Amino acid sequence: MRSAVLAVLLLAPQESIEERRDRIAGRLEEIRGLKFKEKLRVREGTRKEAALLSLEGLKDVYGADLNMAEAFLKALGFIPQSMKLPIAVTASAGIGVDSFYTAGELVLVDTKTPDDLLLYRMTFGLTDQHHPEAGLRKRAAPTFDARMALAALRAGDANVCKVLLWYSKKLGEKVSDDWLESLIRGAEKWEREDSRFRSAVMPRLLVRSGDFGYRRGGIFVETLRLKGGMDLVNKAYEKPPASTEHILHPEKYLAGEAPVSIDLSPLEEHLRGLGYGPTYRTTLGELGSAVLLETHLKNVDSGPASSGWGGDTIELFEGNGMWFIVWATEWDTEKDAAEFQEAANRISQLLLPSERNRTNVVVRRKTATAWLYNYPTPLQDGLLDALWRAKKDGKASYGE
């Protein structure tokens, strides 16, 4: 009997990758409530292709000039001096990858990739047809914070769809009454405890940014889905989360609380007159702020010091054979600003410059806290005066 069954299975036609795509696409449409406008192209690919795709993702988050981004990350201690960022990311990206989505194509590195992982990849393709990624990127600020938030929306959407497949759920159905809470508990435990083991062999920045999309993005998307169904998730593509604060605190996104912009043009103008210019600029956001604290303050919960984030601009200046960093942050309350100032002071003491006539200082006015790192001491008075002339949301002076 067993031999007869085996013979039937061996003679049964194998499902082609196109047939698998079509079957999974039908299930995804039921879960997501959207229809594919056209079939995704499907083909076999290589790990090298996946690694090259990860390099493009790296440029999207950190900027096209990866050499300058690498210099910035090393200056802050995010990555070790010996690390080559593109090599480290592309080398790890190809390991264990089974499939990926890119530009209308579902690419299988392993044709035995499970259905749930293919559905995860295909969700990117489905949403790309309705809300093109290229358009979303044009609307997002070219900063670490904004690009990580956008990536979390897309990855979180895919992760929720994958879980709905696991539980055989359809559009609008709950997984369970406590599933969202279990997601939150799991993410918090990973961030506080389990991820520390991985951070022993990989920079904290790469560990936390690597899991942020599907973990915290999944929580963000499920929060929206439970509140307003997939219609509300679709609206999030029309008005994407602008910061990692929105991802970490969906209630702030739903309330329309926009991040504060900080324009350091007065500071840049002052420093140009002294022979220094900005060579790298970004916004770290609540995620980046937390990761910087976790990188230097080992086994410390970054939550109290990074929650309450309202906005930031961080710039690397170079000139006259030296470099320094100015990080201007804004917080929801003076208490939040003071808590961050205390944490930044601790890091500042750990990273005291070894060169003569260089120093660090953390200054605060009301809800504004700024960290000046590795700057030449003769610049201090003019530097601070120019800093406080910076503009907040294009109007009020920074620190007022």
What's this model, at a glance?
It contains 17 helices and eleven strands. The chain has 400 residues and is an alpha+beta fold. The chain has two domains: 239 residues, no CATH class; 136 residues, Protein Transport Mog1p, Chain A (3-Layer(aba) Sandwich).
Lay out the secondary structure.
Blueprint: H1 2-11, H2 17-32, E1 41-44, H3 47-62, H4 66-75, H5 85-93, E2 99-102, E3 105-108, H6 115-130, H7 133-139, H8 144-166, H9 179-199, H10 204-238, H11 244-248, H12 250-254, E4 262-263, H13 265-272, E5 277-282, H14 285-296, H15 303-306, E6 309-319, E7 322-331, H16 334-350, E8 358-365, E9 368-376, H17 380-387, E10 391-392, E11 396-397
Parallel strand pairs: 1-3
Antiparallel strand pairs: 2-3, 4-10, 5-6, 6-7, 7-9, 8-9, 10-11
What does this structure look like?
The chain has 400 residues and is α+β, with helices and mostly antiparallel strands. Helices cover 56% and strands 16% of the residues. The strands form three sheets. A five-stranded antiparallel sheet has the order 5-6-7-9-8. It has a three-stranded mixed sheet with strand order 1-3-2, with helices on one face. Strand 8 and strand 9 form a beta hairpin. Helix 2 packs across helix 6, helix 3 packs across helix 5 and helix 10 packs antiparallel against helix 14. The termini are far apart. About 2% of the residues have low confidence.
